[in-house]
Amino acid sequence: MSHLLREHAPITSAGWDEIDSEARERLAPNLAARKLVDFTGPLGWEHSATNLGRIVPVAGEPIAGVEAVQRRVLPLVELRAPFTVSRAELRDRDRGAVDIDLDALDAAVQHLAIAENVAVFHGLASAGIQGVAEATTHPDVPLGDDDWDRYPTHVARAVEMLLSVGITGPYGLALSPDCYTGVVETTERGGYPLLDHLRKILGGPLVWAPGVRGAVVVSLRGGDFLFESGQDLSVGYDSHDADVVNLYLEESFSFRVATPEAAVALTM
């Protein structure tokens, strides 16, 4: 029996297929961090910690003449976002309806994706996770308010900082929703889209990143930012009554910055 307890839900196979398909479709554009960092896994629900390859001394000797050390690990954090589905809507799906109401799932997807993006880019201190923008050793690059035409200058400056310490590209750019909208809607002098100009500077993608504050330039050469997935994003069953089924979206992961020099934060 899976820990997700899906077999106990009053949901048919067709209903589960619909929920899983909608969850995957809605998650794809929101999971910005996964498009810019190294992803390992999923390693399973039982996977509980990431090996850091380091040790700490244990106080005292367990027995005379014997030294003791302890391996350091980073425990995985579990994230869960609950939502409900109407049983009447599920019955309509079984009858062939193609427009069932899954707004609550959409909200859960957004909440969980933002939580994951925030953990990767800005950290989750209570879980021992330091974010990319926190860990960088470079000074922040100020963006200025709505000064979209100067974004190529700011991004080029960030890339130059990375190159100056030997961090090669290509590079990616995570943009807050407001910054992304400003970039996409701006046409530079001569009618050249700002989006294309930034891609040429970076050599890599611009990513719409809900939860990110400002923007972050990261190297995509690999090995610098490590996301380890235990349980990948999955829908589980909690309970139900005569009217609704209580479900949740869940994942477990750890995140580490292996090379703090490989990113630059651009701040508003």
TrEMBL record:
Protein known as: Type 1 encapsulin shell protein
Principal place of residence: other
Pfam families reported for this sequence: Linocin_M18
Similarity comment text for this entry: Belongs to the encapsulin family. Family 1 subfamily.
Cellular component terms per the entry's GO annotation: encapsulin nanocompartment
UniProt keyword annotation of Transport present: no
Location(s) in or outside the cell: Encapsulin nanocompartment
Alphabetic keyword roster: Encapsulin nanocompartment, Hydrolase
GO molecular function: hydrolase activity
